[in-house]
Amino acid sequence: MIEINNLNKSYLMKSESLHVLKNIDLHVEEGDYIAILGKSGSGKTTLMNIIGCMDTLDDGSYCLDKIETSHLSQNELARIRNEKIGFIFQKYHLISTYTVLQNVILPLIIRGVSRNEAIEKANAMLKLVGLDNRGKHKPHELSGGQQQRVAIARALVTEPKILLADEPTGALDSKTGEEILELFKLLHQQGHTIVVITHDVKVAKLSEKIFYLEDGRFIETEI
């Protein structure tokens, strides 16, 4: 599903080149549940952006679902993001003026799915995350955990190949965070491929495999 070989990424900071990712190799099979664990400044956000086709690598290769992404245009990368990846962010990124249902159907509308079909799929996803009675509510009427569940439903509604989660429990209290991670466990049991980016060892340990990123490299370590 994900095949990254010898990936390197640098940024020009004033007159100095900052080498953020160094010779990264990462292979993820369909149905895997992995965590990329690292401290602030380790390069994990840059790696997430490349996996999510929001940024490009300098050299190496990145194949997503057998598609080599290295030389794609921004429009082509946007299409892959919409078709292949479901994003779950720490701060939910829900549109405050939309209802829960409208937030969830948005990726389908962008894709060109008919409104009736989009509503049907969105309602099914809201039922899956336990919010089928909240479709008419606005985000501010929900708890943080419920808003994250809406974000997960939105990520799932396009039937993506990969769920890419960036610090999915970072804005939640411990009890609510545990509930979200239980939902991830359920989604994994249903066959979803999940990649979690986190600095939290407890979150990482719930995955099948942990990749520890330090100073832009994967290192062998006991967690």
Would you write up a description of this structure?
- There is one protein chain.
- The chain is of the alpha/beta class.
- The protein has one domain: P-loop containing nucleotide triphosphate hydrolases (Rossmann fold).
- 35% of the residues lie in helices and 28% in strands.
- The strands form two sheets. It has a six-stranded mixed beta sheet, sandwiched between helices.
- Strand 7, helix 6 (174-189) and strand 8 form a beta-alpha-beta unit.
- It is globular, with a radius of gyration of 18 Å.
- The model has no long low-confidence stretch (mean pLDDT 93).
Keywords:
6-stranded mixed β-sheet, alpha/beta, 223 residues, ATP-binding, 28% strand, 10 strands, Rossmann fold, AAA+_ATPase, single chain
Helices and strands, with pairings:
Layout: E1 2-13, E2 16-28, E3 33-37, H1 44-51, E4 59-64, E5 67-68, H2 74-84, E6 85-88, H3 100-111, H4 115-128, H5 144-156, E7 162-166, H6 174-189, E8 193-198, H7 201-204, E9 209-214, E10 217-219
Parallel strand pairs: 3-8, 3-9, 6-7, 7-8
Antiparallel strand pairs: 1-2, 1-4, 4-5, 9-10
Domain ABC transporter: 2-223
Keywords: ATP-binding, Nucleotide-binding, Transport
Protein name: Putative ABC transport system ATP-binding protein
